[in-house]
Amino acid sequence: MEPRLDEQGRVAEPANLTGSDAQWWQRFVKLEEVKAQQGTCHLTPRNCSDTQLLKWVNNQKVQWRKHDRGSLSGWRMKQLERIRAPSDWTGYSKAGQWRANFAKLEGYATQFGDCNVECDYADPTLTKWVETQRWNYKKQNHGNLVPWRLAELKRISAIEDWKVAEGTDEAMWQANFQLLKAYHEEHGTFDVPRTYRGPTQSNRLGAWVAWQKRIRHRPGHGTLTPERYAQLEELGVIAVWQQMETGVKEDDEGTQQGARALRHLSG
Question: Whose CB among 36, 45, 54, 113 lies 3.0–4.6 Å from 194's, allowing a Cys bridge?
Answer without folding.
Answer: 113
